[in-house]
Amino acid sequence: MSRINTVVSAGLLAGLFDIVDAFVFFGARGTPIMNIGQSIASGVLGKAAYDGGWTSFSIGMGLHFGITVFMALVFYLLAMIIPVIRQMIVVSGMVYGLGCWAVMNYVVLPASKSGMHPVFPPAMGPQFYNAIFAHVILVGLTIALVSRSALKAK
What we know:
The protein has 6 helices and no strands. The protein has 154 residues and is mostly helical. Helix 2 packs across helix 3 and helix 3 packs across helix 6.
């Protein structure tokens, strides 16, 4: 698989796992799937995203998968220049996922139009634990494992 195919595949698979987790976790708590996509879109559309129906839901899904492909690209580039990432791919992927969670919560969300401003330290509860699980395992580890064979060929 080419490098670009590896990055795109890693990002799309991580994005799929992450969004399915969000649909299940928040859906079980009564949040309609439509609102989850619109919540992501609110990062660029603000509160108007919640009035945009399927259009804003689709924008949110595009943003979500664009972000996870970008996360995969950053991981891949870091792994190409930092040998220990390739040598310890599983641990590196998990640590990277934790870093992605921190950047999303304390850089991206506050800079967006979503109106979300997470507190530090975060409240320890089901939502926090699910977010950590999703980013460490479903995003970081997935990106690392999908990237592993292409990085070995480097």
